[in-house]
């Protein structure tokens, strides 16, 4: 195992690329330059999205593996770890943009957080594009390619893409979820992402959301089939697994970073919910 999982910025992920805020390329061309990098586990400090138009393989995001199919769009946020395995003949589009890319363009700096595929929850980050929408979505990606677009045009086209994909996601959902419930759940997930190291109890999150703990639990059970406590634990475990990919960090250091009382408490917590010790999980990454 490498001493630390590599974390790439936009310039370092693609040879000869000098723009810090944006990269748009055809996927086959991108893979020719970065084959080894994408096939080993790595992280990004930027937003990443890709659509496949042909080919097959697998994509692992935060330790969840997906089967790659044509006309899937994958979204990732900074801090996530992933790796690809492709069979020959893969093509499509890939877009990288920095967290600052929209800052001078959007009044609401948290606008991207409204989209479920930017939640950081890997199961929400893969969207299958239906046949009747493929032409439109492909056209958006084509218009973002460097020979046809400048930065502001790419910003507009990306927002169009996000809105179209959000609409597709809503149509393919098994049921329509009231907007107010969606908003509360989105805010809860955002709060967890910001405070999971220091805030561990559902009642504390309920206070931040101005609702009762019972209401929060009922909402989580209704929308996700999980308790609020389970969602908090899942986020802590995800961060623990991300950190365990870095062999330079000791178990004690990880426990301290995640605000556990001691090493043994963290080990018991991890073992209980993952079925393996932190050290065992780390060894499984070899």
TrEMBL record:
A Pfam short name: AraC_binding
InterPro entries the UniProt entry points to: AraC-bd, Homeodomain-like_sf, HTH-like, HTH_AraC, Tscrpt_reg_AraC-type_HTH
Coiled-coil blocks: none
One term of GO molecular function: sequence-specific DNA binding
SUPFAM superfamilies: Homeodomain-like (SSF46689), Regulatory protein AraC (SSF51215)
Chain ranges of the HTH araC/xylS-type domain: 186-284
Keyword list, A-Z: DNA-binding, Transcription, Transcription regulation
PROSITE patterns assigned to the protein according to its UniProt record, in alphabetical order: HTH_ARAC_FAMILY_2
Record-given protein name: AraC family transcriptional regulator
Species in which this protein is naturally found: Chitinophaga cymbidii
């Amino acid at each position: 195992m490498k001493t630390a999982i590599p974390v790439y910025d936009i310039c370092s992920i693609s040879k000869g690329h000098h723009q810090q805020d944006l990269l748009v390329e055809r996927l086959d061309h991108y893979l020719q330059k970065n084959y080894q990098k994408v096939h080993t586990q790595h992280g990004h400090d930027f937003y990443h999205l890709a659509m496949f138009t042909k080919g097959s393989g697998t994509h692992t995001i935060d330790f969840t593996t997906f089967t790659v199919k044509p006309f899937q769009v994958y979204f990732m946020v900074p801090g996530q770890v992933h790796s690809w395995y492709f069979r020959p003949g893969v093509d499509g589009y890939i877009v990288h943009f920095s967290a600052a890319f929209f800052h001078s363009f959007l009044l609401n700096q948290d606008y991207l957080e409204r989209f479920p595929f930017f939640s950081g929850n890997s199961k929400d980050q893969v969207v299958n594009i239906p046949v009747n929408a493929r032409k439109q979505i492909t056209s958006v990606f084509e218009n973002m390619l460097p020979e046809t677009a400048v930065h502001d045009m790419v910003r507009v086209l990306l927002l169009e893409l996000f809105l179209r994909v959000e609409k597709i996601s809503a149509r393919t959902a098994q049921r329509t979820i009231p907007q107010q419930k969606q908003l509360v759940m989105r805010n809860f997930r955002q709060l967890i992402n910001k405070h999971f190291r220091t805030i561990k109890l559902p009642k504390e999150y309920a206070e931040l959301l101005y609702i009762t703990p019972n209401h929060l639990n009922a909402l989580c059970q209704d929308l996700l089939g999980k308790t609020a406590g389970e969602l908090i634990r899942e986020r802590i475990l995800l961060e623990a697994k991300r950190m365990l990919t870095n062999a330079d960090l000791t178990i004690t250091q990880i426990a301290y970073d995640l605000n556990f009382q001691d090493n043994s408490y963290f080990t018991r917590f991890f073992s209980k919910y993952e079925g393996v010790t932190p050290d065992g999980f780390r060894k499984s990454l070899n």
